[in-house]
Write the structure tokens for this entry.
Amino acid sequence: MSAERQVILDTETTGLEWRQGDRVIEIGCIELVNRRPSGRRFHRYLNPQRPIGAGAQAVHGLTDEFLADKPRFADIADELLEFVSGAEVIIHNAPFDLGFLNYELGLIERGTIEAVCDAIIDTLKMARELRPGKKNSLDALCAEFGIDNSNRQLHGALLDAELLAEVYLAMTRGQESLMIALDGGAAASAFVGGEHPPIRVVAPSAEELAEHERVLTEIDKASGGKTLWRMLPA
């Protein structure tokens, strides 16, 4: 079985609307292999070639001066596409980040993120289905799942990708059961292969049987002799 590869991705931008010319200024990616951090990351600050909006700067704290000597998106596009290629890409509010990234790729005639990755998973959509009517921002989800986000004084693409990785794993923890079983050794492997491990049967003691019967009798008396287990034939 080939390893499952996922990439958690986040961006920061000059503003909220790529259709009005806003640009990507930071990209942060964390790689998961079989639902575990692999240690591989992709992180770049970018020169957007336009001023950062005051509202956006208040969110992420990045300045025009800081980004002036950073590479342009075109300079790192190949690295980004290689990093996400063939992976499930996990994004919180995917339409926002994809809109910006695909706009940047379109400017250099390089297609779309969706064309090279295996799938897109939107954790905001997932969270809304799991928690209808509740706040599902990254901060709200960190609070829900007990994830420490105390270092998140400002938004940052790499930090937010790290937090989102923890949120995603927490939201999908039930899906780990098979992987946990696979880590359990020979018995688990035999079960997955179709051979059930031996079942251990523990018989109750005479004292336990007597106590069980006493409790059933008390329940039967309290119900006026109408308990189903007394009415049915043995």
Q: What stands out?
A: Residues 176-197 have pLDDT under 50 and may be disordered.
